[in-house]
Amino acid sequence: xSEPLVDISHVTCGYGDTAAIRDIDxxxxxxxxxxIVGPSGSGKTTLLRAIAGRIPVAHGRISMAPGTxxxxxxxxxxxxxxxxxxxxxCVLMARETSRLLPWATPEEKRQVGQTxxxxxxxxxxxxxxxxxxxxxxxxxxxxxALLRRPQLVLLDEPTSGLDVKxxxxxxxxxxxLHDDGLTIVLTTHDxxxxxxxxxxxxxxxxxxxxxxxxxxxxxxxxxxxxYGASMDVLDHGGMPVVVDAYTGAALRSAS
Amino acid sequence: MIDxxxxxxxxxxxxxxxxxxxxxxxxxxxxxxxxxxRGMSYIGHGLSHAIxxxxxxxxxxxxxxLLGAGLWGFAAALxxxxxxxxxxxxxxxxxxxxxxxxFALGLALFALFGGSGGSFDALxxxxxxxxxxxxxxxxxxxxxxxxxxxxxxxxxxxxxxxDAEVAEVSGVRVQRLESLLMLVLATSILVTxxxxxxxxxxxxxxxxxxxxxxxxxxxxxxxxxxxxxxAACGMVGMITSYHLDVQSGPTIVLTGALLFGIAYAIxxxxxxxxxxxxDHHEAVPVRGPVTPSAxxxxx
Lengths: 255, 299
Fold this sequence. Notes:
The complex is a heterodimer.
Chain A: E1 6-15, E2 18-28, E3 33-37, H1 44-51, E4 59-64, E5 70-73, H2 87-92, H3 106-118, H4 134-146, E6 152-155, H5 164-179, E7 183-188, H6 191-197, E8 200-205, E9 207-212, H7 214-217, H8 220-227, E10 231-236, E11 239-244, H9 245-254
Parallel strand pairs in A: 3-7, 3-8, 5-6, 6-7
Antiparallel strand pairs in A: 1-2, 1-4, 8-9, 10-11
Chain B: H1 2-6, H2 12-37, H3 43-61, H4 65-86, H5 91-113, H6 117-125, H7 133-152, H8 154-162, H9 164-169, H10 174-196, H11 201-215, H12 219-244, H13 248-276, H14 290-298
Helix pairs in contact in B: 2-7, 2-10, 2-11, 2-12, 3-4, 3-5, 3-10, 3-11, 4-5, 4-10, 6-10, 7-10, 11-12, 11-13, 12-13
């Protein structure tokens, strides 16, 4: 196997004296699409921020392949939606420039237009970010991340607060970007969405409980250790579907 | 009537004052956008008080007052910025603690060792009609420097002001840029304090960007509008002050307040809502596509 894009070796870190994640050992290969799942407070966001270099590592080491360009998409809940910024301005602000003048070059305008069009945001450049739907808002920040032409994109809860259809659209879009060779790591609470769209999952609860393909890690035992709750896993056309234990029992008895 | 209007322009002191009031208004309007969007509206008031302490200390020690007070103000601005980013306490508390302590030190030093009464009063209340050619030059150079910083580093400034954490991950050297902006801010306050006085600087930093925010949803346009509004307030306020025989500082601030009222009348509740949230950097929860769309539709 080739050198990993991100090598997380026995990492412990957190806030103050409290370790939010402990002894994390993960290798993220280039071109992989990984979902980090776990309950609230399990350290998902902390792990992402540690990979992004935003939290000092107390123990262990995180190393990245030389020259890796990284983009980070924050939770939409952390965004100041009243900030005076249009879609076009928001996307362009991440584009580094060595020019002395700030306005976009024709090439940059073309790239912004292409990126927005690919993400279904064509024609919205002049709109304020608050005037968009939840899915569009998420895609604006994804567009900002993509404009940097990264090798690795970290997304914190990209499906949070979205309806089922929009959630599916976002995950489908990320799947397409992954097919183009982008390495993606995201955190989520949406277990079934992950099972349907992602090839690789990490179950996290302060430490790594399990990692692997959804069919391998989404088992009642792993979920019990990750969430501390009884869950059932049904098979739907070869795809695991996670339900709570009562629903699972009811469905099994009905069938 | 036209003759009466043009009369003050024949006086050199008025022309100097008018130029400096206009340039200082534009300068404060420009840097005020960063100040207000970072939720540090009180910093102008606080830093001018802090610089007062630096003025007292440097005049007693015998070093160049502008340099000493400038360095003092820059150090205070950096301290405020650092405390605010690390978030052990809020920006308002950080500004309150650091700047009032500095102001109190200045008062204590003046009380203990004495000071020039004229300079003391000028710093507290401003002396826009006693503007020296050097003040015109310094204010103009500072505006030029601020414009260069905002033009050359525009994207990074927008990114850092909007989302410092993601900006840092994206390769922007946030701390260095914020230090540069704090230097511009401290210098702006230093060169305009003598003209507007400690008590009026805050208004010139806050009113123009607030009015500009009510007029636009774009960061770049807000910078342009705020600079223009600041310049207009300085110019109109200065001319008004001559004809009404009222001090220039209050007329400049009242001109800004009048513009605020006009902007509110034109933009209505939407404009006021945008401006009212300028200091609210906590997240506005987005629960799904329905709420923002409904708001957009309502507009």
